[in-house]
Amino acid sequence: MRVILQHGMLCVGCPIASFHTVSDAAREHDLDEHQLRRDLEAAIDAGDGTSSLPRGPRQSRAVDAARPRRPFGVRS
Predict the structure, then answer these.
(1) What is the pLDDT averaged over residues 33-53?
(2) pLDDT tens digits for 54-63?
C-alpha cells in the first residue's frame, strides 16, 4: 500500500481497483510501469511488514488458523 500511495495512486478503496492489473493502473495514472513494478517488487522483497498477506510456508498455517473448526464428531 505504501508504494501505491507514494506513486500518487489512491487505489485503496477504489471500486474498480480489484479489476485492474499493474499495467492498467500504471497506464491509467500515467506512470512508468517498469518503475512501478520495480518499486512494488522491492517492497515485497524487503518484507518490511507492511503487507497483511501471509508469505511462504506461513501462508498455509494462517489459512488453517482462519478456517472455522467443527466440534469433534460433528459432520456437515
Answers:
(1) 81
(2) 555 444 444 4
What is the SS3 assignment for the chain?
A: CHHHHHCCCCCCCCCCHHHCCHHHHHHHCCCCHHHHHHHHHHHHHHCCCCCCCCCCCHHHHHHHHHCCCCCCCCCC
Q: Is the pLDDT of residue 45 over 50?
A: yes
Of residues 49 and 36, more confidence is placed in: 36
What phi and psi values does residue 37 have, to the nearest 5 degrees?
A: -65, -40
75 alpha carbon, distance to own chain's centre: 34
Q: Which pLDDT does position 33 carry in this prediction? A: 95
DSSP code for 53:
S
In this structure, the chain runs to a length of 76
Closest-CA residue to 10 (of 23, 29, 24, 27): 29
